């Protein structure tokens, strides 16, 4: 489903060039769980954000459903992120001025939220176990609950792809397990492809795909077709 | 989106409040300053809207108080076709009322020839009597007077009371109220009594109030009168003569009249006729007031004839100039308010860079983010404008109530609407730079900042 071809990414840090990715080529099959592993600075988050069109590669191409992301103009990239991709971040990244329900609906605020979307958002929050917390603000929710809200936000658009960057990085083990359990259930239910960046290999199952990076290059790729 | 913008503002309530206050005060200041010109325009409209007739006076004199023309010209004017009544008037400044010096607001002794005054179809003061009566033929040669409500209330007088004006004990027989600061300043007496009290030149008057018969068009009538006196020589009024005409007490009045004079002269096409008496350094206007047939070929009219519309137009030019001055003063406040908005929004935007990154990651375009930020600054602008207008209005009401005789401020609905619209535009433009600033970063750069 996702084809990464010879992608490179160079960051400019002052006068120094940082080669975050160096000619990475890989494949992420659809409707499966894929993990990107590697030490800090290996380029895993950079690759994840390139998949989500949050950034553009310095070289190479990424194809999602056979369409190159580099051919998208700004509006198409916004639409791609709004309709096709759901993000789950390490530090939850909820908007503190909005309650749980509004955070789930945040992608649609500029376009206007329909009653149907609102119902779906409420249903999603119930599915992730937050039916009783929909009017609570992020500051009134625990870390695990905030991450569930983020998962519900990512799922509302029925995305093709969920990209999660260290989703359990700030959670205790038990809550981390609950979040992964939630992610797996929901992705199975919504037939979504999930790509997760993590240091923690405890949540990987045998059937999951693994891409291991080191110094911006692929060190190991295990793809279970 | 709007709800989101409101919540964002409320989440930084102190900063939003300070910004709102800055804008509110700037707009209130703007409303207050422009209400000065508005008040002047309204006073002019209230005043000259009541005056149906036309006034003949000395060329260049800003108001009848400073005008001197020969008394005998009244008969000549009366013979001009289209003139129904000629009413000679004498105006003089009052220095003392009830043994207290009169500085501000100014008061004037207004001497009017009663037989002709009583024949007027529209008598401004006569029609405005609300207590007692207007002067009658029996009041000729007496110290019976009619005063305004303002003057009566200021000195706690009513009909039948004695009021001391410039040391003369006058009996109040009537009270009037025109509702105009420019009209409700007169202490009305028989013309000969005022002449005696003020030692006014027996051969001169300040001006003639002329009531038209309606047979001749107003513009044509004015032209005919001017033509009739074209080529005659008359001492042209000079601002320096204020010193004599006004004793010495009111510099404020002098400055004000000088300003009006400059304004009126600026739009006047008349060249003052050389005054021989002034050239010799003499300031005795009574002798200069005698009319002489000019030998020169300049053919200037020796009479200035002004209709109410003419007065209004000329004073509008003055208020337009005043508007420029007030606009410059307002500009300073507005600039500070705008910088305050930019500062507030920029700080707010910098604090929320991560939020904008999250929104962009979820599909918000740069335009959407810019809209959110400008919506926030616009809300500050709208509410700042509304509060500023309310505050300005309250201040105007207080000033008008506290200084009822001295000042009249007026904020028209148009000015208030302008205040709100201007404030909103200020809010929008103040948010544009911070909004643009957010578009320079990719979503991931913004998120990583957090």
What's the topology here?
The complex is a heterodimer of chains A (225) and B (450).
Chain A lengths: L1 E12 L2 E13 L4 E5 L6 H8 L7 E6 L2 E2 L5 H10 L1 E4 L11 H6 L9 H13 L15 H14 L4 E5 L7 H18 L2 E5 L11 E6 L2 E6 L3
Parallel strand pairs in A: 3-8, 3-9, 6-7, 7-8
Antiparallel strand pairs in A: 1-2, 1-4, 4-5, 9-10
Helix pairs in contact in A: 4-5, 5-6
Chain B lengths: L1 H10 L1 H36 L5 E4 L11 E2 L2 H6 L4 E11 L2 E2 L2 E2 L6 E5 L1 H4 L6 H4 L1 E4 L11 E5 H6 L7 E4 L2 E9 L9 E5 H8 L5 E2 L1 E6 L5 H11 L3 E2 L8 H4 L5 H16 L9 H4 L5 H4 L3 E2 L10 E4 H44 L1 H9 L4 H37 L10 H26 L4 H7 L1
Helix pairs in contact in B: 1-15, 2-13, 2-15, 2-16, 10-13, 13-16, 14-17, 15-16
Note down, in words, how this protein is organized:
With 225 residues, chain A is α/β, with parallel strands linked by helices. Chain A is built from six helices and ten strands; from the N terminus they run E-E-E-H-E-E-H-E-H-H-H-E-H-E-E-E. Chain A has a single domain (30-54, 74-222), classed as Rossmann fold. Chain A is 31% helix and 28% strand. Chain A has a six-stranded mixed sheet with strand order 6-7-8-3-9-10. By secondary structure, chain B is α+β, with helices and mostly antiparallel strands. Chain B folds into two domains: 2-44 and 316-449, no CATH class; 59-302, no CATH class. Chain B has 17 helices and 16 strands. In chain B, the strands form five sheets. A six-stranded mixed sheet of chain B has the order 11-6-3-13-1-16. In chain B, strands 7, 8, 9 and 10 form a four-stranded mixed sheet that branches. In chain B, strands 2-12 form a two-stranded antiparallel sheet. Classes of the chains: A alpha/beta (225), B alpha+beta (450). The A-B interface holds A 49, 52, 54-55, 74-75, 78-79, 81-83, 87, 89, 91, 93-98, 102, 106-107, 109-110, 153, 157 and B 1, 4, 7-8, 11, 354-355, 358-366, 368, 371-372, 442-444, 447, 450.
